[in-house]
Amino acid sequence: MTAAEGGRLVTIVLPAGSRSLAPSDGDSVGGGAITIDPGQILRTETGGASWYGNAFHGRKTASGERYNMHAMTAAHKTIKLGTWVRVTNTANGKQVVVRINDRGPFVRGRIIDCSRAAASALGFIGAGVAHVRVEVLAGKP
After folding, report:
1. Residue 52 near residue 129 (C-beta atoms within 8 A)
2. In this structure, what is the dihedral angle of CA atoms 13, 79, 109, 97, given to the nearest 10 degrees?
3. N or C: less crowded end of the chain, CB within 10 Å?
């Protein structure tokens, strides 16, 4: 159901200091509220999240682009590269929207590997891992 059909819109407020969605890099969403129509959510999965940073910064990702630990991106084993997903830390409710640009994680029980920026916004840099909900979006938010 879309908003036009009477569905409800969901507003996500991302952390201050996140970069705005920029057409030139297309890999970050932040600095304000993003409204996502529930009809845009194609599927949902829950599981473990981890993050990767310094050691991989600048290396090529599965998509062919360079990994930028400061961008709102993530790795997933099967979601199509270039797909946007909303990630929610189920322990604290913090949310980010990231673009899948790499493959992984390859650790049992983990479903997504977030960039350092995404993990920071989700509040699990120190812990290293978190339980999350991943919602696959139909398009660019």
Report:
1. no
2. -10
3. N
